[in-house]
Amino acid sequence: MTGTQSGSIRWAYAINQWKPQFDDFVRREQHERALKTMSIAGFEGVELTYGTGRWEPLGNPQQLAANFGSVAGFREFLRGCAIDAVSSWYWDPAERSMEHLTGPLSPLVEADVPEIVAKAGWLAGALAELGGSVLLVRPVPGAGDVEPLDDDALDRVAACWDAAGRATAEHGIRLALHVDFLSALRRDHVPALLDRTDPALVGLALDTGELTAGGIDPLAVIERMGDRIWHVQFKDALAVDDAEEYLKPHAHWTVRVRGGAREVRWFAEPGAEGGLVDFPAVTRALAGAGYSGWIVVESDQSPHPAASALLAGYLVQRELGPILLDQRKAAV
Amino acid sequence: MSDDRAIKWSYMDHWRSNGPSGPVDQWHSHKTMSAFLKQIKATGFDAIDTFDFRIWQMYGDYGGPAKYQEMVRDHGLERIVNTFHAADYDVRNYAPHLPETHENILEDFRVTMGRWSEIELDNIIVMPATLYYDMEPITEDKLKYSAECWNKVGEITAGFGVKLTCHHEFFCGIQSEPDIETFYSYTDPRYVSLFVDTAQHCIAGLDPVALYDRHAHRVSGFHFKDTRNVATGDDHRHRPDSEIMAPTTGKWFYEMGTPQGLVDFEAMMTAVRDNGYRGWISVEHDKANKEGGDYSESTAVSRWYAKNVLEEIYR
């Protein structure tokens, strides 16, 4: 839909909201309906989330091949749904790989680095074939699961992602660090890590919802690190972790999934009632910073995935897309 | 039509979403209405159709049809195109095949059209007969009386600049091919039009494309919706209800673009093109939420199909 194409910015939608549990969203017809929903809402691309095993048909290149004949076969399937590309792939190296018989990997563990680099290259190769441009990685474990990151730890993490970025660059794919609200990098460590990486190899993924839930203003991040932003995710935050629950061990389940002690819903599609993110302001700031690339809209999880995608599509078509177009016209 | 497209798409406004206390329709609140309209706009529809009985919510909650239409327009949609007059048919006082009830029907439309007169409608859509079991046996006289009734109603609606158009549910008294043909032979083309619902005709065992081709000159609109089942046995005359209570079929209606759909929409769109039709096509998938369905998704899939398949044939 031309209303959502704004020069060098392309809009995609993240698939993850359709798969709340491991045995959901495994059938071809479910994928088809989700992709057609994204397409008719005005999104050109889809962002995938890494997964492993036979109930993750869209989780990695081997599963794509098992389900669609080949990675190219999946691209054909996407085109049949009027989706042009896989914009990006999100990967947390702590996720095991049943395909490779590997367990959780950590960039803090030097012995894990070669496997991390190899997997980053593997995903990037497929992503290139799928028309994408960015591999998003979870750069460090959750804050409650590792010791505080000292200078030495940050050096090791930076070296790992520089190496992985070099591997993805061989496929023409950029590597972007996706800092979530549970991350050990929350608050002060993001610039400390970025400063240690090669700006030609590693960038930042700006996730408006994660930053806001972590008490960080995305506008401040754009102002401070706008030149390092290689990928953007637009999701809204409905709550802030102001009790620092992110410091709890295994917070993925107790804090992110359950919603912490308050059992809140952290995230929703942009524009949701009660949303804390000022998306018009973020959009203007990104345009002002000269951002080009994908903006992936997501809700993370949604009780009504199709409604979330359509409501987000409305916001992009009617409000955010026109902001970008107006700024381009003003620049010309 | 305000631009050069031959076809524009309107959405017949069946809808459910899940509220905190359970399922609600879009008329539940201004917030749910806004969410509905945003989703219709986001998928690329140009306008909406609605139901006649919603007029009370329009008056009560929005200040009337014109004010409600302003809200529709604020969401980027053009207008309300058609309204469906879902009458309470009853052989005691409201049955087109019974002439003694005609004056009551005519008065209903005089009042109804006055209520709608503050906005521009293309069609007021009616089921042209009672439920099948209230009209059977279907005789030529009953078809003739029905036609006479609608000729008079159509003259009233024409006075308000609105076409009276007939939508033949598979469970109404005028649904078989011979009965539809007899009915139209007695109606006045100036006052009575045909509104082709692709699924309803298909369920009744008719080819909707052939029916359209025969009556194209008096077709004033369409419901593009699909079905996976043709009625069998007494499905069309099941008491007390066929539409959602037939023992054979829990869900008759599906969105256009559904797998295993029986309607040949590509043939239908080709016929629309070849007959030179210009105007609105309404998309409908009533009861989409039955058996686990989801209105948002069905609406997205149907509009995706219209854009990516049908508009390649004719737009």
Describe the structure.
The complex is a heterodimer of chains A (332) and B (315). By secondary structure, chain A is an alpha/beta fold. Helix content of chain A is 40%, strand content 14%. In chain A, strand 1 (9-14), helix 1 and strand 2 (45-49) form a beta-alpha-beta unit. The model of chain A is unreliable at 1-6 (pLDDT under 50). Chain B contains eleven helices and twelve strands. In chain B, strands 1-4-5-6-7-8-9-12 form an eight-stranded parallel β-barrel. A two-stranded antiparallel sheet of chain B has the order 2-3. In chain B, 39% of the residues lie in helices and 16% in strands. Chain A binds chain B through residues 1, 29, 33, 36-37, 39-42, 81-82, 273, 303-307, 309-311, 313-314, 317-318, and chain B through 17-18, 31, 35, 38-39, 41-44, 76, 257, 259, 294, 296-297, 299-301, 303-304, 307-308. Chain B: Keywords: Isomerase. Chain B: This is Xylose isomerase-like TIM barrel. Chain B: One of its GO terms (molecular function) is isomerase activity.
Q: Find the CATH superfamily of chain A.
A: Divalent-metal-dependent TIM barrel enzymes
Overall average pLDDT of chain A: 95
Mean pLDDT of chain B: 97
Termini distance of chain A? 23 Å
What is the number of beta strands of chain B? 12
Q: How much of the sequence of chain B is in beta strands?
A: 15-25%
Q: What overall form of chain B do the CA principal axes indicate?
A: globular
Return the CATH class of chain B. Answer: Alpha Beta
User: How does the helix and strand content of chain A classify structurally?
Assistant: alpha/beta
* Largest interface (C-beta under 8 Å): A-B, 24 and 23 residues
What is the highest CATH level, the class of chain A?
A: Alpha Beta
Low-confidence parts of chain A: 1-6
Total number of β-strand segments of chain A? 10
Rg of chain A: 18 Å
Strand count, sense and barrel status of the largest sheet of chain A are:
8 strands, parallel, barrel
Quickly count the helices of chain A: 11
Helix fraction of chain A, binned, reads 40-55%
**Multimer state:** heterodimer
- Low-pLDDT segments of chain B: none
Order of helices and strands of chain B: EEEHEHHEHEHHEHEHHEEEHEH
